[in-house]
Amino acid sequence: MKKLVLLRHGESVWNKENRFTGWTDVDLSERGVNEAREAGKVMKENGFFFDLAYTSYLKRAIKTLNLALEEMDQMWIPVKKSWRLNEKHYGNLQGLNKAEMASKFGDEQVLIWRRSYDVPPMPVADNDERNPRLDARYRGVDPELIPLTESLKETVERMVPYWEGEIRESLKTNEQVLVAAHGNSLRAVIKYLKNISDQDIVTLNLPTGIPYVFEFDDQLNLQKDYFLGDEETIKKLMEEVANQGKAKK
Ligand SMILES: O=C(O)[C@H](O)COP(=O)(O)O
Q1: Is the pTM of this model over 0.95?
Q2: Is 9 one of the annotated active-site residues of the chain?
Q3: Which residues, by range, are in coiled-coil regions (predicted)?
């Protein structure tokens, strides 16, 4: 049985402050560091031994991966990074508080920005310092491919070539692969893997730092998927993520 583990990064400083983050390169909070270490412990307890790992160009995912691998004493494994695993670009919302936006524009509008499949937030302007085309780390990427905002649909579209050309390929010759990335870039992967409809993906919220295991047969047909951890606790954490986009009463 081949195993893929998807791991959303631990809580970031902006998760803690409840701000839209997207491609902003914020660090882990103290809680996030602990969550990343805990994820490593849980994977170790469950006997995981990875052949290689993937992550994004953003430090909250990279550090989560490193901390988890450190707990597992598997820091030596090959790691590949790709901008295609970055978080959904949150456009002009990046930096703004989610609950404050809900007070201003309504819970429904914020849900559309956060979870609708094909409605992107307003883009950042070309001369905005948040424009990733101005960031040297993306200079190796065709500027046409670099988003100024994204819907989940667009995140899926830029993630799929990397899944098909790289991660899926690596699963053909490896047994266990770890991907440390982001709430929405992982929702994009999960939608694609499980063939979840555009409507149903709206209700999927990924908690930070909880390993999500996918098991495949040798032909890479998905057999089953499950989170590592207590079901009730995970359910609560998912609800907390959903509620981040609601106005404070
Ligand atoms: O970019 C962000 O703000 C978070 O990583 C994910 O946020 P969301 O749960 O609001 O989509």
Answers
A1: yes
A2: yes
A3: none
How far apart are the CA of 184 and the centre of ligand 1, in A?
Answer: 7
Structural domains of the chain ordered from first start: 2-170+183-213 (3.40.50.1240)
H or E stretch including 171? helix 168-173
For 25-68, the pLDDT digits (tens) are 999 999 999 999 999 999 999 999 999 999 999 999 999 999 99
The DSSP code for 123 is: P
> Ligand 1, closest atom to CA 244?
10
- 78 burial level (CB within 10 Å; 0-12, 13-18, 19+): exposed
**Residue to mutate (ligand 1; options 12, 14, 16, 21; most atoms within 8 A of CB):** 21
Only one residue has tokens 């902003």, namely 24
Number of helices followed by number of strands (H, E) in the chain: 9, 6
Q: In a mutational test of the pocket of ligand 1, which residue from 20, 94, 100, 109 has the highest number of ligand atoms less than 8 Å from its CB?
A: 20
Q: ipTM of the assembly?
A: 0.97
